[in-house]
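Can anyone check this?
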Amino acid sequence: MILVTGATGYVGGRLITRLLKQGLTVRAAGRSLEKLKSRPWATASQIMLAEMDVFDETTMVAALKDVEIAYYMIHSMNPENKGFAAQDKKAAENFISAAKKTGLKRIIYLGGLGDDNANLSSHLQSRREVENILRSSSIPVTIFRAAMIIGSGSASFEILRYLVDRLPVMLTPKWVHTPTQPIAIANVLTYLTECLDKPETIDQTFDIGGAERLDYEALMSIYAEEAGLQKRFIIPVPVFSPNISSYWIHFITPVHASIARPLAEGLKNPTVCTETRIRDIIPQELYTPREAIHRALDRIKNHQVETHWTDAGYLPPPAYVYPGDPDWSGGTVYKDIRSIELYCQPDDLWDPIIKIGGETGWYYGDWLWHLRGILDLFFGGIGLRGGRRDPNVVHSGDALDFWRVITAEPGKRLTLLAEMKVPGEAFLTFALKKRAGDRDGEDVTVLTQKAVFAPKGLTGILYWYAVTPLHHFIFNGMLNGIAKASQHKKKCGPYVNA
């Protein structure tokens, strides 16, 4: 039995697919069972799903029961968590405590490259601290230290992609000349899976990197060539602090400043392999940065992004959206419920509903949505740049512009949680219900759109009343837009539900 923690994260989600292909029995663990169930591998015969919180020992002990080997893929760096280093430390300590109680025999951990010295960035120092905690017990640990991982959907690659795509001229910090040895996600996954059959990797630490060393300026130039862009002009200047860099990344790329800052700080540290023993133990064809970038762009172009950095993060349970007693909001919940009726089946409307956002847009008033996204950026939010992993498919936990998919029940319901900056918590639901026996002799599907807002304090209440006048135009327009996209005849609506 193999446990993969962080199963809905970028590396963990892909790792499970590879382990299953090897015929191994895997227990996938994450904080949200709903997200786990939505993954493509969730119904495989040799998979088990476990809801696990590293700050709840009971759930960890249950997840580790009967497990021999565990992949520790937990990192707390996300927009909701400002003190990620302290959280990572506590999580690792809790995991070791639970592992000792359940008789775990081996741990495999993916950390970060960088020399052990006082100048190591806080992000890389945190990775080292986790390494030391995992090694502090008698449980054997295999540690892989990687530099930037190049793959469709990785946070580092998304920063590179958006910066180079959008800026023909870049004023950059001096870190553009820092040496690095990026590695393709495919090579990382090979090391992580093949080490299971290599006893000589037990209780060892390995540097893993790609086929070439280069600096970030060269990496940007290679990306521009592979993306078919004109030559980019990169001008290093001494005035960019990590803080300024993080906000610049925040405004240009989909990566939030809270994630961009520790990543930007780490760019000052050379991240190259100081030893290559693993290449003899697990030989494989290492991709060059150009080959890795080409593969990543090809998968993005063909909508084959298996996992995305935005997949990670907390997802509230679906019941949270339908409170019987709204004490979770301080006793106040505002709702706007509208419906439209069409001559069709529910499945006929599901396709345009799940394509909302991203390249498709919001079916009405896209300029207003873009304005809202710009305002969100200036208030420290993520804006609309998050986009979506796949333009045609959504799963629970997926990012969708500045929303998060809570539930996606085909032909029935799509529920979104707002991740933009709002003084409260906002949900948007599209529900489908078939009504048979219409007097016109045709089946009718009712599409109901429900906006739910739980305000925080007076500011939240004022916010709701300020945006309410726009609902008539935006929400009715969205319903009409979905109906038009479905190409089915409208019976009546939109109308406001009592």
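Reply from J.R.: I decoded it. The CA atoms of residues 159 and 253 lie 6 Å apart.
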